[in-house]
């Protein structure tokens, strides 16, 4: 577990795992302290810190030596993880909320509150143009091959990066996060009213989309609405994914069986970000206050690293996780 008062505060912490050699590294953007940090997971040591000039709202790896960030001043930066040096890629007209790297097209893709999606050639950082016809500010972006999934308002727009042909999937509720489903092909979203919705794009598939509430029980006769802040699929187990919500819970689900598998012990604050290692053996969880409750106490965020074993996949009543 990583816990430090210097981590700062934010509900927009972003976690990313990477395997380098025989060890794991984790990339974390901390908005309030305006810095990007790289940690060695095995030793829990800080390997690199790159200060910024604005709050960093998102980050991702381009490869094991290069990463990217999106900031509240609209800037998109690229970092050399060996030296800590950074270079500007481009800038948005408003807050930049999301950044992704597409290994399929070798492009850097970013989006934000200016309702634009910008594209840059990762090799030259030359602009490849932008899409500026979005109806709302972008909350979340994900990639799956040539498919770019964009959550804006109550809809998920899916773009084909070869032709930029767009399909719109309206959800009827504000979407908080969108993530790809690989087998069968589709996407999953978490909403502000506590629902998770799965939709399969491949029409030939026998799988049908469905929706459920993470907390179906009511409180005081009313349904308890808890925002689903993030979703992460286990890369080594088809159909296994976790959700993290504002009540501080991480829940493991079986997409194929349509059932809850396990609920981890409640975290100190809202769960704002989740990330699996490439082999699914480790799960990183960021717990922080989420600026959505008037009585929330501002405390330093915590990053938990869990070792994921078979106990999480076989029984909903199995034991608790291990902390690194």
In short:
This protein is mostly beta strands.
Provide key terms for this protein.
324 residues, mainly beta, 5-stranded antiparallel sheet, 4-stranded antiparallel sheet, 1% helix, 54% strand, globular, disordered N terminus, disordered C terminus, Mitotic checkpoint protein BUB3.3-like isoform X2
Protein architecture, described:
It comes from Nicotiana tabacum (Common tobacco). This is Mitotic checkpoint protein BUB3.3-like isoform X2. The structure is a single chain. With 324 residues, the chain is mostly beta strands. The protein is 1% helix and 54% strand. The chain is built from one helix and 31 strands. It has one helix spanning 311-314; strands spanning 2-3, 14-20, 23-30, 35-40, 45-51, 56-63, 66-71, 75-80, 86-91, 96-102, 107-112, 117-121, 127-131, 138-144, 147-152, 155-160, 166-170, 175-182, 185-191, 195-200, 210-213, 218-219, 222-223, 228-233, 240-245, 250-254, 259-263, 270-276, 282-288, 302-307, 322-323. The strands form eight sheets. Strands 1, 28, 29, 30 and 31 form a five-stranded antiparallel beta sheet that branches. The chain has a four-stranded antiparallel beta sheet with strand order 2-3-4-5, with no helix packed on it. Strands 6-7-8-9 form a four-stranded antiparallel beta sheet, with no helix packed on it. A hairpin with a 3-residue loop joins strand 19 and strand 20. The radius of gyration is 19 Å and the shape is globular.
């Amino acid at each position: 577990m990583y816990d430090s008062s210097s981590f700062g505060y934010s509900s927009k912490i972003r976690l990313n795992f990477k395997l380098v050699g025989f060890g794991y590294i984790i990339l974390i953007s901390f908005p309030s302290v305006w810095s990007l940090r790289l940690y060695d997971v095995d030793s829990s040591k800080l390997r690199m810190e790159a200060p910024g000039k604005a709050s960093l709202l998102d980050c991702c790896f381009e490869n094991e030596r290069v990463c990217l960030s999106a900031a509240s001043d609209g800037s998109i930066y690229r970092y050399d993880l060996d030296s800590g040096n950074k270079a500007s890629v481009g800038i948005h007209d408003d807050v930049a909320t999301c950044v992704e790297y597409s290994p399929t097209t070798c492009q850097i893709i970013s989006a934000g509150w200016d309702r634009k999606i910008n594209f840059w050639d990762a090799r030259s950082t030359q602009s490849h143009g932008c899409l500026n016809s979005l109806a709302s500010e972008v909350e979340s972006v994900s990639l799956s091959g040539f498919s770019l999934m964009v959550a804006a308002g109550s809809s998920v727009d899916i773009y084909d990066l070869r032709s930029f042909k767009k399909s719109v999937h309206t959800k009827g509720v504000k979407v908080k996060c969108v993530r790809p489903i690989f087998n069968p092909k589709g996407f999953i979203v978490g909403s502000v009213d506590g629902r998770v919705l799965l939709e399969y794009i491949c029409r030939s598939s026998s799988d049908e989309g469905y929706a459920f509430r993470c907390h179906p029980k009511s409180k005081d006769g009313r349904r308890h609405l808890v925002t689903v802040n993030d979703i992460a699929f286990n890369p080594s187990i088809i159909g296994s994914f976790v959700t993290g919500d504002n009540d501080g819970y991480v829940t493991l689900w079986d997409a194929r069986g349509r059932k809850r598998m396990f609920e981890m012990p409640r975290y100190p604050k809202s769960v704002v970000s989740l990330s699996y290692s490439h082999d699914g053996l480790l799960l990183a969880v960021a717990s922080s206050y989420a600026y959505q409750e008037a009585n929330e106490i501002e405390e330093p965020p915590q990053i938990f690293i869990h070792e994921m074993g078979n106990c999480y996949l076989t029984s909903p009543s199995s034991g608790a996780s291990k902390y690194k």
